[in-house]
Amino acid sequence: MTNESAADLRFSEFTLVLPTLNEEKTIGKIISYVNRNYKGMKVLVADDGSRDGTKKTVNKIGKRHNEIKFLDRKMKGSEKGLTASVIDGIMLSKTKYAIVMDADLQHPPEKIGDVAKKLSQGSDLVVAVREEVGSWALYRKIISKSLICVGNLILLVGRKATCNDIFSGFFGVDRKLFAEIYMNNKKRFVKNGYKVLFDFLKCNKKGKIKVSEVPYTFATRKYGTSKAGIKQGIALFKSFAT
Q1: Nearest 5°: phi and psi at 163?
Q2: What is the pLDDT confidence band of residue 37, given thresholds at 50, 70 and 90?
Q3: Distance between CA atoms of 159 and 30, rounded to whole angstroms?
Q4: What sign does the CA torsion over 117, 120, 123, 124 have?
Q5: The model's pTM
Q6: Are the CB atoms for 189 and 83 separated by under 8 Å?
């Protein structure tokens, strides 16, 4: 996104929702990038019970920037899960739009502006679409593509909204639209899962919302380890069934 097009946007209309779980090594880098490049954008860190210095890092930055907020979901006694964190973050946002991305730097923060631009141009949902993930092992690519095929089939049969990356964790949405869809379909969102975009898509009829896409390169993980596991796999199949 060029500096000229970025200057035309009112970033104060956007909240970046960052679901976190032990992201001490990366969260400060993302927030600093946002502060430098997207002046006025709000940042809401929805934490799922980090045991490292994530909270300390965010609160330290927040003392200097009023736009930065830390949501300690552990203190609320909320249901655990990435989807639950994202939902809480979006629902507590006060801006017109919300942009969701992971906090491990596999989602490039330089693409936030492209997502924001398409939202400001009238899209209801903007999905950052992953290009080929070269660093993944072959078995992981096969499993991922198989699950994507199942998810696409479910959306196709149900004539639901779709995109070219139905499991993307990097997307932007009209906040009021998301809140309305969620409140009317609470039981269809699997809160202990991690595919909130898929849950959102399956609740929307094809053609009822305007969907746009932004391509990006999925970065190799440099910090921490993947949080995907058996529990998340079970949650995904539950998403397929609800």
Answers
A1: -160, -175
A2: very high
A3: 37
A4: positive
A5: 0.91
A6: yes
For residues 28 and 23, what is the distance between their CA atoms, to the nearest angstrom?
9
The C-alpha atoms of residue 108 and residue 90 are separated, in whole angstroms, by 20
CA gap 176, 15 in Å, rounded:
13
Taking the C-alpha atoms of residue 49 and residue 51, their distance in angstroms, rounded to an integer, is: 6
pLDDT in tens, 58-80: 999 999 888 999 999 987 567 89
- Residue 51, Cβ neighbours under 10 Å: how many? 10
- Which structure tokens are listed for 54? 């994530």
Q: Name which of 195, 17, 184 is nearest 91 in CA terms.
A: 17
Q: Is 27 helix (H, G, I), strand (E, B) or coil?
A: helix
Decide the pairing of beta strands 125-130 and 171-174: antiparallel
Q: What is the pLDDT of residues 133-167, one digit of tens each?
A: 656 677 777 888 899 999 999 999 999 999 999 99
* Six token digits for residue 71: 């949501």
State the Cα–Cα distance between residues 77 and 130, nearest whole angstrom: 33
**Cβ(165)–Cβ(130) below 8 Å:** yes
Do the beta carbons of residue 47 and residue 24 sit within 8 Å? no
Contact 107, 131 (CB under 8 A): no
The pLDDT of residue 74 is 84
**How many CB atoms sit inside 10 A of residue 229's CB?**
8
Q: Residue 82 is which amino acid?
A: L
Euclidean distance between CA atoms 242 and 226, whole angstroms: 25
Placement of tokens 């969102």 in the chain? 189
What Rg, from alpha-carbon coordinates, does the chain have?
17
